[in-house]
Amino acid sequence: MKFTELDLPANILKALKKMGYEEMTPIQEATYPVIFAGQDLCALAETGSGKTAACAIPLIQKVDPALNAIQGLVLVPTRELCMQYMAEIEKIASTTHVIPYAVYGGFDKKIHIAKLKQEEVHILVATPGRLIDLLYDGILSFAQVKCAILDEADELLKVGFLEDIEFILSCILHEHQTLLFSATMPDDIKKLAHDCLRDPQHISLITDRVAPESIEHYFAYTHPKQKQIELIKYLEGEDINQVLVFCNARHMVDSLFRSIRKDLRDIDYMHAGLTQDKRSATIEKFRSGKLRYLIASDVAGRGLDFSHVSHVINWDFPRDGEQYTHRTGRTGRMGRKGKAFTFVSKHDLSSFRKLIRSRKITPCWIGKDPLSENNAPQERRTQKRAIYRRKNHSG
Ligand code: AMP
């Protein structure tokens, strides 16, 4: 369905045309009527499916620019995602009088305060920590908020964020619309999600935990000491555009960067221990194609839109299926093809089994397949038993 078939104001259509958005993506088509009708919503869609615009377009349409007040609130778990969300809203709102503004940690709070005190803001995009600081400072009023959006909702509802989110939502005292968007929604989080919503609609464009078909899943059973050699060998044989390498901890990002930079050119690293300026600059360099390789912690794992990542490498085996989905979702976006390559050590085998079962992944092994070897004795035992039964139970 085309955007022109919706009842959108001409100025928003003009912006969408400028952005090259003609056809709605499936998540946009499915959620638009619900959001526009003012209903609460819990929407599950793969990362890279156009979730941001799915919320942003109806949100901008709902804002009354003549009213000088925050009318839309968007909460996201990371600073990078906050800036990305803001950039998308800014583009869609560029031909309207709707003014979005982003507040996030690591940025001068005085600048945030000055802007919010002195200037008009209609849509506030925020990370929870900074937003709470501003609420405590008495800078914000939510009296006119019509719609609150939780992007990467399952992350926002996890321990660590949950209390903040409950507090923020409790500051909107009147009835309002709440929209939850996510690519994953573990069962234990579903109930918490429900507590935030009023008579919600559920829309899921995710086939039950199945990994997207646009991504091929490669695994390499490797001794940790061999990983660097194996990775270089693998990359040499691949047609590469951009590569995103995930490690489980900041110190791993640092040490991998130090040791691999001699082998790979146009490489940088990023994690939450760096200054916000360095984080933002690195993301921008990667997004604009000036970097070929980025080694990162999971701050780059959620929601970030990198159009040209051809390969995602799990240097460290991911904690669970959700983390695998988010990391690998940085490739194969908007119908493009992508490859995920994950190192598996002896200690990861049971997690590996769980992962492929839960995500219904068909793994391709590069090098030896440890499971077929492990299974071989079992298979032999099964065959021997069958022969024994045939001999002893026949006639
Ligand atoms: P998201 O899932 O929001 O991160 O979006 C993924 C990518 O799809 C972004 O680069 C968007 O600019 C792009 N996008 C979103 N909606 C559309 C659309 N209707 N047509 C073309 N591109 C789109």
Describe the secondary structure blueprint for this structure.
Blueprint: H1 10-19, H2 26-36, E1 41-44, H3 51-62, E2 72-75, H4 79-93, E3 100-103, H5 109-118, E4 123-126, H6 128-136, E5 147-151, H7 153-156, H8 162-170, E6 177-182, H9 187-196, E7 201-204, E8 215-221, H10 227-236, E9 242-246, H11 250-260, E10 267-270, H12 276-287, E11 293-296, E12 309-314, H13 321-328, E13 338-344, H14 349-359, E14 364-365, H15 370-393
Parallel strand pairs: 1-6, 1-7, 2-4, 2-5, 3-4, 5-6, 8-13, 8-14, 9-11, 9-12, 10-11, 12-13
Helix pairs in contact: 2-3, 3-4, 6-8
The chain binds adenosine monophosphate.
Overview in brief:
The chain contains 15 helices and 14 strands. By secondary structure, the protein is of the alpha/beta class.
Give descriptors for this structure.
binds adenosine monophosphate; alpha/beta; single chain; 7-stranded parallel sheet; 395 residues; 14 strands; 42% helix; globular
**Low-confidence region ranges:** none
Cofactors, ions and other ligands in the entry: adenosine monophosphate
Q: Strands of the biggest beta sheet: in what spatial order?
A: 3-4-2-5-6-1-7
Order of SSEs, N→C? HHEHEHEHEHEHHEHEEHEHEHEEHEHEH
Q: Termini distance?
A: 67 Å
Q: Major beta sheet, specifics?
A: 7 strands, parallel
Assembly annotation: single chain
Helicity range of the residues? 40-55%
Number of distinct beta strands? 14
Question: Taking Cα atoms only, what radius of gyration do you get, to the nearest Å?
Answer: 24 Å
Structural class: alpha/beta
**Count of DSSP-assigned helices:** 15
Q: How much of the residues is beta strand, in percent?
A: 15-25%
Shape: globular
Mean pLDDT: 91
